[in-house]
């Protein structure tokens, strides 16, 4: 049964309280979370047995409420972004789904424990067939020919294939930041201006995109490019402001545009 709470601004199940806070119908700032926890502890003490599912769900809901109220109390924007609330709900759903999976495995383990306990009570028959029924026992080799025995012998001697473990999903891609820097140094002077999306269109994995982003940060630190993002989650604009030149020691140095062109 869901935990019921009573606060100055809300009275009812705690999951409904979370929904009301998410819909901005109840201000989390006016909800005393201590009263919510006290109601849960009182209901837990009154219960004859602890329900792991309900307890875990309450802990998840309480954690979300604490996070939302801490954002409200700390300095910053007065309104909590809707995307952040949705992320909290998604995290709660993931935790609940994992809890349900855990309950399934726990139930399967209990079933196996019961079967093992029942099997431990059985006693195998040590004696053979009684003499009165010996002639009635079926012949286990009836219908088995020498060819069948030879085929079984060959199957037993055939080497089993060596099991192959596919590690492609955990293998680190052989891509480095220095290689990505060299690639961008070769492309950006001709483009002068490009978006990060355009620079990573040829990438096929997430790691390749991450490495090229780190390479852009390295070029920005050297002063070769400038980075600009007009709005949140907008395209990252990359502008080339210097030209690379090969130094005497074989490394790369930055040369100003005017000096390079002169």
Descriptive notes:
The protein has two domains: 4-103; 177-261, Structural maintenance of chromosome 1. Chain E (Arc Repressor Mutant, subunit A), CATH 1.10.10. The radius of gyration is 35 Å and the shape is flat. The longest helix is centred in the middle third of the chain and has 39 residues, at 82-120. The protein has a three-stranded antiparallel beta sheet with strand order 3-5-4. A two-stranded antiparallel sheet has the order 1-2. A two-stranded antiparallel sheet has the order 6-7. With 262 residues, the protein is mainly α. Helix content is 52%, strand content 11%.
- Distance between the ends: 79 Å
What is the domain total for the residues? 2
What fraction of residues sit in β-strands? Answer: 5-15%
Q: Average pLDDT, to the nearest integer?
A: 78
Find the count of extended strands (DSSP E, 2+ residues): 7
Pattern of helices and strands = EEHHHHHHEHHEEEEH
Q: What percent of the residues sit in helical stretches (DSSP H or I)?
A: 40-55%
Low-confidence stretches: 246-250, 255-262
Shape: flat
Strand order, largest beta sheet = 3-5-4
Total number of helices: 9
Largest sheet: 3 strands, antiparallel
Secondary structure class reads mainly alpha
How many whole angstroms does the radius of gyration measure? Answer: 35 Å
Topology:
Elements: E1 4-6, E2 11-13, H1 14-22, H2 33-46, H3 52-73, H4 82-120, H5 146-157, H6 177-191, E3 193-195, H7 196-199, H8 206-222, E4 225-229, E5 236-240, E6 242-246, E7 252-256, H9 257-261
Antiparallel strand pairs: 1-2, 3-5, 4-5, 6-7
Helix pairs in contact: 1-3, 2-3, 3-4, 6-8
